[in-house]
Structures are given as structure tokens and as C-alpha cells.
Known about the structure:
Elements (H helix, E strand, L loop, with lengths): L3 H14 L7 E7 L3 H13 L3 E7 L3 H8 L2 H5 L3 H9 L2 E6 L12 H10 L1 H12 L4 E6 L3 H6 L4 H12 L6 H19 L4 E6 L2 E6 L6 E3 L4 E2 L3 E4 L7 E6 L3 E3 L2 E3 L2 E6 L2 E6 L4 H6 L9 E7 L11 H4 L5 E7 L14 E7 L5 E4 L2 E5 L2 E2 L4
Parallel strand pairs: 1-2, 1-3, 3-4, 4-8
Antiparallel strand pairs: 5-6, 5-18, 6-10, 7-9, 9-15, 10-13, 11-12, 13-14, 15-16, 16-17, 18-19, 19-20
Helix pairs in contact: 1-2, 1-10, 5-7
Amino acid sequence: xxxxxxxxxxxxxxxxxxxxxxxxxxxxxxxxxxxxxxxxxxxxxxxxxxxxxxxxxxxxxxxxxxxxxxxxxxxxxxxxxxxxxxxxxxxxxxxxxxxxxxxxxxxxxxxxxxxxxxxxxxxxxxxxxxxxxxxxxxxxxxxxxxxxxxxxxxxxxxxxxxxxxxxxxxxxxxxxxxxxxxxxxxxxxxxxxxxxxxxxxxxxxxxxxxxxxxxxxxxxxxxxxxxxxxxxxxxxxxxxxxxxxxxxxxxxxxxxxxxxxxxxxxxxxxxxxxxxxxxxxxxxxxxxxxxxxxxxxxxxxxxxxxxxxxxxxxxxxxxxxxxxxxxxxxxxxxxxxxxxxxxxxxxxxxxxxxxxxxxxxxxxxxxx
Length: 368
């Protein structure tokens, strides 16, 4: 059945998220399960005078790859992938999974090895992003498997994803423009601030943001989106955080992750469930430091789904990522991984900025 929300989402992705232009080389990447959205994005790209190409995967290929590939095959970088990474202008990646547990039997160390081996591709991407040479976005297309992971019915999950991505169907692009303007006021308020302290149940962490920049997560890079984020000074993080919202990494559920920091470094790490996954994130020196601190702002994302790309946007939460930071924030941390961990702030959470209480129980107290 035709769903008009798909075309609305494609319009947002092409004309808000990546601002497609005539003669842009556009790659659209996703599973065949996302066919309706891939097709709609392709059509919008053609209408805009761009040059779209598609990379459409089959549901079982990734699982087969990690089960059968040798270390040499895991480390191999296809020349075509490097060419696309180095020369294309626009990247649209669409997540549509047939089995969210497909990689659950693959050792986390093997997944981490592949990520480390392909770090050169990620470095190219980060450099070009910093230089303003590429525009990219990630979107979620609802599937029954993702609905099951979120413990929701498929129809409810569809409504949840589209509601968080295109809440105003009459003017979807205008909605994100208005949201962007509101968040930019928050970003501007943070300019020049020096320090952040976060307190929540079993959490008390401090960090310096001196000289660092907050970035407006306003639907340009992710969809659904909704966050403001920065990269803390690498050696400044002190204290501990118990990340109260479960997340999924490498296809495995991680619950109750608890990290302790000294001089920016993770000196202790435990978890109630999936501690082996937490330890597998520790693959290089940069993975022991924080690359990102962010506050989630999407009110439409009101519950965990098991998809970190969505869950880090939960309104009334904050998240930190071990590993690589984003150069546009001023982060200097480098790693082969970027592992997000999320903490709820709606029940007793507080944030101080330069010793001023600015956020409490999931809401900003400052007027912008």
C-alpha cells in the first residue's frame, strides 16, 4: 500500500538534510527492504538534476560476510568503495534490517577488527566532512524486525518512526527549519562556556568544553534527529556515569553500562548485561576517551528502541560516545570506533554549565 509519508521523508532527506543540488553525485545506500524509500529518494535526486546511484544490499550478505571472511578479506578495502568515499558529493544511507540479531553469534572482537581495518575509509569521510566537501544523512525505514527489537507492533513502529521524522506532513521541511532555528539558539547560548557537570541517579560526571563547539543536530545528518553535541576536552572528563538506557552494539544488547573516568580516561567499565560488548569497544587508545557529549531533544523519540541511532535522540536524555570525536566540534580524539551510551535525565537528572543549573528532569531551564 502506498504510504505518502515515504515521499515526504524523501523530500526532507534530499532538500533539508543534504540540500541536493544539480550535478551532485549522490549515492543511496540501503537494504532492499527499504525499496520504497530508496526509490523515492532516487526520484527526488533526479528531479533536482543530480546524478544518483544506488548500493542496494540483500538481507543476509552482512551475516555471511562476517561468518565466512578471513582476516585478509575483512581488512580489504574495495577500490570502488574508496572511489565513492573520495569523490561523491552526497551520501544517503537508509537503515532497514531484516534481523537485528543477525550478527549476535559473530565474536565482538571480529567486528571490532573489521572496523579498525576499515578506519582509513572513515578517516577520508571525516576529513571531507570537516572540509565541507560532502553532505550526508542517515535515515531509518521501518521494518518488522526493527519493530520487534523496539518491542512494538509494526504499525505502531511505523507511526513512531514517521512521527519522529516527519511530524508535520503538511510542511515537513518547514518543521525541521523551525526546529533547527530553536536548537541553534541553544547552540549559540553554549558558545564560550567552559565546563559541564551532569548528575543523575548513580551518575556524577564533569568535563571541560573550553574552546569546543556545540553542533546543531537538526535533521541534516540523521533522521530522526534531535540533539546538540560537542567534543569534551579529552583529558578533562572526571567522575562516573551509569548509562540507564539499554543500547545495542555489534548486534548485542548492553544494559547498565557504568564507566569511571580519571583525567579523561576510562579506568573502569562494568555492565549489568553485555559486559563483553563493552570490553570489545576497547580496541585502541582513543576508545578509552570520550569523543562526544550530547543532549537528546526529539520529543517524538520517547522510548528506547534498541537502535542507537534513534535512542541517542530521546528527548530528556544525554549520551556520551567512547572513541572518535567529530572534528567540527573541536574534538581531537581518534579511534576506529564511536560507541554511544545513553542516560535518562527525566527523573532527577541535572546539568550545570559553568556552575549554573540549566537543565533539570529532561527540560532546559534557560530561555533562548
